[in-house]
Amino acid sequence: MDEKNIKNLIKKTGGIPSLPEIIQKVNRTVSDDNATADQLGKIIEKDQALTSKVLRLANSSYYGLSRHVDSISRAITILGFNSVSSMALAVSVGGMFAGKGREGSIALTDLWEHSLACGIGAKAVMDNVQNSSTDKAFLGGILHDVGKVLINMKFQQEQKAVISSVCGGGIKLLDAERQILGFTHAEIGAIMGELWNFPKDIVETVRYHHRPLSARISRDTVCAVHMGNEIVKAMGLGKSTEPHVLPVMEEEWKCLEIKQAELPKIISAIHDEFNRAEEFMSL
Ligand SMILES: [Fe+2]
Ligand SMILES: [Fe+2]
Taking a C-beta distance cutoff of 8 angstroms, is the pair 271, 234 a contact? Predict the structure, then answer.
């Protein structure tokens, strides 16, 4: 199914859920190269719930700050614009995954745990790349499977059939999705990301996280997310609806200029960070 047909199908099922105004503003600010830390701080501070969640994360053991941070502007000064904007988006999307009372054909909490693990995995990979954005990799990992949330809302019967053919028949998830739904979670996730004004490199990551070498922009981030995804599945962190661990291509290591010998170090960093990320689970 091409993009136009997928969009029509989404329309027929009542469209995608709207993203809260505040998050749309955060998205626009993050996508704007000229936006300042001050602008971002003011937008977040207007929303009490978002502010308190971001501060809770900033003060969690995940970030390991030595002093308590009690304002968004302080969090931005200490952790940086990118970290805080990633946190704000993670909080908003995390809320959707948590989807209290909205369990469909998959357990959203499992998917959230997998997504968080993938974010941590992608960041740990990117930590080994010089001059790279680890925040982008983290956020890309958190959002990479967002299409599954939409499928869970709109196409529950089909998703159930997809999962049983993946688990029972040993078919790869993407093949089962193409056969049963006519599109993949990566394709519908990217459409959703565009409609929600996600930053372009995040949309690219969502679209290509299963074939990162096709990415046209931010290929390093997309490769890191793909690697993170496969590494955390192999480690058994979180639970993905794609249980098969798929290969990482030689070219992906080359794209990131990381030696495969770094893998044990990456795995131990993921292990460590995942244990400290408890606060993220309960967003
Ligand atoms: Fe995926
Ligand atoms: Fe995944």
Answer: no
Q: How far apart are the CA of 34 and the centre of ligand 1, in A?
A: 32
**C-alpha of residue 216 to centroid of ligand 2, in Å:** 20
Which token pair is 4?
Answer: 């136009």
3-281, CATH topology level? Hypothetical protein af1432 (1.10.3210)
Q: Where are the beta strands (DSSP E) in the chain?
A: none
Considering the entire predicted model, what is its pTM? 0.92
Name the residue ranges covered by the structural domains of the chain. 3-281
Q: Which ligand is nearest to the CA of 110?
A: 2
Q: Which ligand is nearest to the CA of 243?
A: 2
CA of 184 to the centre of ligand 1 (A): 9
> Residues whose CB is under 5 A from ligand 1 (ion)?
145
Which pLDDT tens digit goes with each residue over 217-255?
999 999 999 999 999 999 999 888 888 899 999 999 999
Task: Give the distance (Å) from ligand 2 centre to CA of residue 153.
Answer: 18
Segment 156-213, tens digit of pLDDT: 899 999 999 998 878 999 999 999 999 999 999 999 999 888 889 999 999 999 999 9
Q: Is 263 helix (H, G, I), strand (E, B) or coil?
A: helix
Torsion of the alpha carbons at 143, 158, 237 and 259, rounded to the nearest 10: -60
Ligand closest in space to the Cα of 173: 1
Q: Which has the closest alpha carbon to 220: 198, 201, 246, 192?
A: 201
